[in-house]
């Protein structure tokens, strides 16, 4: 069970919008603000990172948020100056629709 004090980081969720092409023909992804929520940001290190590494070698962190039906794996998350890409569908923790875990990797700016 999670306590409210664990959700101490303010993160912004970014919804993927229509993809466009620039005049030069390059593909460009656009994102719109889907809301700011309280979250717990867990950097994966040591054994936990190794376990996650077996599933997806690019996972660098896990973000826990309160459950939202609309979060998709195509979205992004920002925390302060850091941007994360969601790598897999959100995990409904214990199936109770209370919390979600987002497996993410940091994107270099």
Describe the structure.
This protein has one helix at 46-55; strands spanning 9-16, 20-21, 27-28, 31-43, 61-66, 76-79, 82-86, 91-92, 99-107. The chain is mainly beta and 109 residues long. It has a single domain, classed as Thrombin, subunit H (Beta Barrel). The strands form 2 sheets. It has a 6-stranded antiparallel β-barrel with strand order 1-4-5-9-7-6. A two-stranded antiparallel sheet has the order 2-3. Strand 8 (91-92) and strand 9 form a beta hairpin. The longest helix has 10 residues, at 46-55. The radius of gyration is 15 Å and the shape is elongated.
Task: Write down the domain tally.
Answer: 1
Determine the fraction of residues in helical runs and give it as a percent range: under 10%
**Which outline best applies?**
elongated
Q: Which sheet architecture does the biggest sheet show?
A: 6 strands, antiparallel, barrel
Low-confidence runs = none
Q: Structural class of the secondary structure composition?
A: mainly beta
Written as H for each helix and E for each strand, in order along the chain, the element string is EEEEHEEEEE
Describe the secondary-structure layout:
Blueprint: E1 9-16, E2 20-21, E3 27-28, E4 31-43, H1 46-55, E5 61-66, E6 76-79, E7 82-86, E8 91-92, E9 99-107
Antiparallel strand pairs: 1-4, 1-6, 2-3, 4-5, 5-9, 6-7, 7-9, 8-9
Features:
single chain; 109 residues; mainly beta; 6-stranded antiparallel β-barrel; two-stranded antiparallel ribbon; 47% strand; elongated
């Amino acid at each position: 069970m999670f306590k409210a004090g664990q959700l101490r980081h303010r993160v912004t969720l970014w919804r993927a919008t229509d993809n466009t092409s620039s005049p030069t023909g390059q593909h460009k992804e656009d994102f719109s603000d889907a809301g700011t929520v309280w979250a717990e940001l867990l950097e994966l290190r040591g054994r936990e990172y190794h376990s996650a590494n077996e599933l997806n070698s690019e996972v660098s962190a896990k973000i826990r948020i309160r459950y939202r039906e609309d979060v998709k794996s195509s979205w992004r998350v920002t925390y302060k100056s850091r941007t994360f890409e969601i790598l897999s569908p959100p995990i409904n923790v214990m199936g109770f629709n209370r919390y979600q875990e987002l497996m993410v990797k940091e994107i270099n700016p």
